[in-house]
Specification:
7-stranded mixed beta sheet
Length: about 240
């Protein structure tokens, strides 16, 4: 991801003609060749806290990507240690939990390098703590790496809300138990913007629990509740 090299977004634009809403077709490949993926879901494992939450969620999101786009999607979630340099090549990373998150030196170095060099991390607070421990500890990490004012509120007309489907702001979930430890339900998301692009999307809405639900079989919603996840991923790949 060095300067002068083709970025993930550049590669995707070559594949799709540059329009996020026209993700059409896949490039032919020789018979017997290894699968080529435009997207794979990477969950970040970190030493502190509980990173392994909402286990069905990635599968539900990947299914929605297949349903709504023609992206070539790896059907298997990839779990990679945040301390492993392999995470630096992921097109999208997911990090979650609901207890303490305290990066060690290698984890912090990789996180900052990935974000500053064009990566995208979606961070979702599971909201099952009492005092906002995940939020407070994660925000401390971000302040150390990117500055006290790096996390900013995203306006409800931000491009992430129209990158594929159209929303008038972040969808509300059924699981906003204790957003950011303040017992309030928020109508916004936060982000860290690098070079005009959201590089860290930060949610207190516990989207992971909402998207973990087996909506395809239970049908408790009239429409796919993972559609906003599709927006997030398309933004990550094309912005």
């Amino acid at each position: 991801m060095s300067q002068g090299s083709m970025t993930r977004a550049d590669c995707l634009r070559l594949l799709t003609g540059g329009a996020a809403g026209a993700l059409l077709g896949a490039l032919p490949r020789a018979a017997g060749a290894q699968p080529v993926y435009d997207f794979w879901f990477t969950r970040l494992r970190y030493d502190s806290g509980n990173w392994d939450v909402d286990r069905r969620m990635p599968s539900n999101i990947l299914t929605s990507l297949v349903d709504y786009t023609n992206l070539r999607v790896d059907p298997q979630e990839r779990v990679i240690s945040l301390a492993d340099p392999a995470m630096l090549t992921a097109p999208f990373c997911y990090l979650s939990g609901h207890t303490l998150v305290e990066f060690n030196q290698a984890e912090a170095a990789n996180f900052e390098r990935y974000v500053r060099n064009g990566g995208f991390v979606f961070v979702d607070d599971c909201n099952h703590d009492i005092d906002g421990l995940f939020a407070r500890s994660f925000e401390r990490q971000m302040a150390r790496m990117f500055g006290d004012d790096a996390l900013v509120t995203l306006p409800n007309d931000h491009p992430i809300y129209s990158s594929f489907f159209t929303f008038d702001g972040p969808p509300t979930t059924s699981f906003e138990l204790n957003g950011w430890g303040d017992d309030l339900v928020h109508d916004y998301l936060k982000g860290i913007v690098i070079n005009g692009r959201v590089a860290v999307l930060y949610s207190n809405k516990d989207y992971g629990c909402e998207w973990d639900y087996d909506w395809r079989n239970k049908r408790f919603l009239a429409e796919d509740n993972t559609r906003f996840a599709v927006n997030i991923i398309i933004y990550a790949l094309t912005a």
